[in-house]
Amino acid sequence: MSDYIRIEKAMAYMSEHVSSQPSLEDVAAHVHLSPFHFHRMFCKWAGTTPKRFLQALTLERSKRMLKKEDSLMDVSLSMGLSGGSRLYDHFVKLEAVTPGEHRNGGHGVTIQYGVNETPFGKIFVAITPRGVCRIEFLGSRSADEILVDIGKDWPKASLVQNNNATNYVANVLFSRLKDGESNPLSLHVMGTNFQVAVWRALLRIPPGQLASYSQIANALGYPKASRAVGNAVGSNPVAMLIPCHRVIQKSGALGGYRWGSTKKEMIQAWEFLREEPIEL
Question: Which part of the chain is the HTH araC/xylS-type domain (predicted)?
Fold first, then answer.
């Protein structure tokens, strides 16, 4: 069992058993390690201690919801995102596929793809010359199934496996690069005008904070469109970079997530810890 798989299993175990507050010994036993070795491995790969991660899971999600209905449109991607906000230090720029690009089906475009390891499980990454077009967690679907979908969206594009190229994206996502080693990331996505507007709104939710479907609908000027917003969030083609995991129900309930509620909760807790460390 790889280190990454152990960390993913440990995070999932803590998320699923948060109400019973499992001890370090309990979680270490679940991944077949001694408490000492598990604690050291968790800190190395997750960037925090098991105790802090469990504390973050315990916090009420609603306390991290954006306070004002209009705040989504007021928050700049680069505002107040120093320190642990490595992803937004590198600025994420979203570009939609143009009508012309859609009509020619990706003719002359080479899409590189690969599977890379993360603390939350393996991810499938695909990139065009203009940016990242797909990120999905593997598990419910295989890489071959995702490739079929990409082939439908880009029927005339060339698909080339290149794990080294896509590993750069994973490294930026999880801050594995040293200062000065990375460049800004761009997204090259295909969606309706409304979907793209929702995805742009998601980029305005700061790491460690959450917004409801209704807040996003209000911010876009469509206060009765919460259901449509939910559909657009669920159609997000680029996991984590377009942070659909930061959207919850107005009540504070976790809400749905294409890759499972446990993974959504794990990512939320991890991001929160990077932004606002919890005192032990």
Answer: 8-105
Distance CA 227, CA 214 (A): 9
Query: Is pLDDT of 278 > 70?
Result: no
- Residues 130 and 188: beta-carbon distance below 8 Å: yes
Phi, psi of 48, deg, nearest 5 = -160, 170
* Residues in contact with 33: Cβ distance below 8 Å, sequence separation at least 6, in sequence order: 6, 41
Average pLDDT, the chain: 84
Of 175, 189, 164, 154, the closest CA to residue 114 belongs to 164
Given the residues 28, 201, 216, 244, the one annotated as active site: 244
Q: Give the Cα separation of 50 and 61 in Å (integer).
A: 19
- Contact between 112 and 166 under an 8 Å Cβ cutoff? The reply is yes
43 catalytic? Reply is: no
Does the pLDDT value for residue 70 go beyond 70?
no
**Tally of CB atoms within 10 A around 140:** 10
